[in-house]
DNA sequence: CAGGACATGTAATTGGTTACATGATTGC
DNA sequence: GCAATCATGTAACCAATTACATGTCCTG
């Protein structure tokens, strides 16, 4: 799986607790990976057993100890190994397209309802991306922009371009189904 | 999960064996869902227990019996229920974007290699879609086209539009990384 | 006579979701 | 006083992958 590698890639930048990582996965990381806090705590435990991360306890008053994880040499080696290995693309899984095929069975109306729901969702998504684009990248990064900014910008662009593709498709689909 | 519903949606059209379904998932269905033969045989067993499908044995000489599954009333009811319930979109999981972030750690070269590999893959994908488009749909379906053709056409368009979005993004990404 | 299509599975493991569990602190 | 945030998990279940298993028929 890649959750291990997604977590390691965050630990490259700085040490973090399971809670910190959960917050990361709820905000920025959510644009390209997802994981629940249960999954994250479990995976951190597994990676500690493998010695990919090391653990430091931080006592706190009232709250339970914070468990702060850092990347070990083994973890960094594994991450580098994985990074240069050919990507394994997950096969597409698109529930909406199964449902589209069921328009004959249930009629076009309930399917159109769902397509319109998706349209709303995609509009919001695009608005979110645009907002971030304005906040963090006032213009397209130029030559002297730091590599980290370039990759962050490209992640944003990826979300934006696929959201637009989905938007275009939804318009086509709705138009065609409405004429049926 | 939706594998059950993907299978049921095929059984609406005609009864099929596990082997037949596997072939379907390797060809046309692969554009929007994926499953291995092990998974399909298992799921058919589970659905038989739930009485969503019924079973007919077809004796064959030499080969093991063919087990032919058909949709039951319970199965059809479940499928209709699911079809009109709001879609649950799976959160994005994009390994390539994790790897992009690792360009600082491993250098841009191995990442560019993978982006170029994806570029090749997407070109092939687009070629495949275009071939099917020519074979089955010589022109954009018009008013009197059967609903089944419309939904098949839209599935194809979905693949084509997202492949093009990926292509555009890959071009942007490669250009930016090459200038680093 | 070898390799691919036909035809069906089991078992082990890993990955992911859902439900349940605990308890202090901070802001409205 | 009530909800949200901080902070950590366990357990049960469901979904998916990988490895293993068997045997025939047909084509080159």
Compact summary:
Two copies of one chain form a homodimer. By secondary structure, the first copy, chain A, is mainly alpha-helical. Chain A has helices at 3-13, 18-26, 37-49, 73-84, 95-101, 103-106, 108-136, 147-178, and strands at residues 16-17, 53-58, 66-71.
Describe the structure.
- The structure is a homodimer of 180-residue chains.
- Chain A is built from 8 helices and 3 strands.
- In chain A, strand 2 and strand 3 (66-71) form a beta hairpin.
- The N and C termini of chain A lie far apart (43 Å).
- The first copy, chain A, is mainly alpha-helical and 180 residues long.
- Chain A folds into 2 domains: 3-84, Orthogonal Bundle (Arc Repressor Mutant, subunit A), CATH 1.10.10.10; 95-178.
- Chain A has a 3-stranded antiparallel beta sheet with strand order 1-3-2.
- The first copy, chain A, has helices spanning 3-13, 18-26, 37-49, 73-84, 95-101, 103-106, 108-136, 147-178; strands spanning 16-17, 53-58, 66-71.
- At the A-B interface, helix 1, helix 4, helix 5, helix 6 and helix 7 of A face helix 1, helix 4, helix 5, helix 6 and helix 7 of B.
- The structure holds a DNA duplex (28 and 28 nucleotides).
**Count of individual domains of chain A:** 2
Global mean pLDDT of chain A: 92
Q: Report the count of strand segments of chain A.
A: 3
Radius of gyration of chain A: 21 Å
Could you tell me the strand content of chain A as a percent range?
5-15%
Q: Number of helical runs of chain A?
A: 8
Judging from the principal axes of the Cα atoms, what is the shape of chain A? elongated
Which class do the helix and strand fractions of chain A yield? mainly alpha
Order of helices and strands of chain A: HEHHEEHHHHH
Classify the oligomer: homodimer
The most extensive interface between chains reads:
A-B, 68 and 68 residues
Helix fraction of chain A by DSSP (H/I, runs of at least 4): 55-70%
Widest β-sheet, arrangement of strands of chain A: 1-3-2
Low-confidence stretches of chain A: none
Distance separating the two termini of chain A: 43 Å
What does the main sheet of chain A amount to? 3 strands, antiparallel
């Amino acid at each position: 799986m890649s959750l291990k590698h997604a977590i390691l890639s965050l630990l490259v930048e700085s040490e973090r607790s399971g809670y910190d990582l959960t917050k990361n996965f709820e905000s920025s990381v959510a644009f390209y990976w997802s994981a629940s806090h249960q999954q994250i705590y479990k995976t951190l435990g597994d990676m500690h057993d493998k010695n990919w991360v090391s653990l430091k306890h931080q006592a706190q008053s009232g709250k339970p100890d914070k468990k702060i994880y850092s990347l070990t040499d083994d973890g960094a080696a594994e991450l580098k190994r994985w990074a240069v290995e050919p990507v394994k693309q997950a096969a597409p899984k698109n529930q909406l397209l199964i449902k589209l095929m069921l328009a004959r069975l249930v009629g076009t109306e309930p399917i159109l309802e769902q397509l319109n729901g998706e349209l709303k969702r995609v509009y919001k998504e695009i608005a979110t991306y645009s907002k971030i684009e304005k906040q963090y990248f006032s213009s397209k990064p130029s030559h002297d922009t730091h590599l980290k900014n370039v990759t962050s910008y490209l992640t944003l662009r990826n979300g934006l371009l696929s959201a637009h593709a989905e938007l275009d498709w939804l318009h086509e689909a709705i138009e065609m189904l409405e004429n049926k």
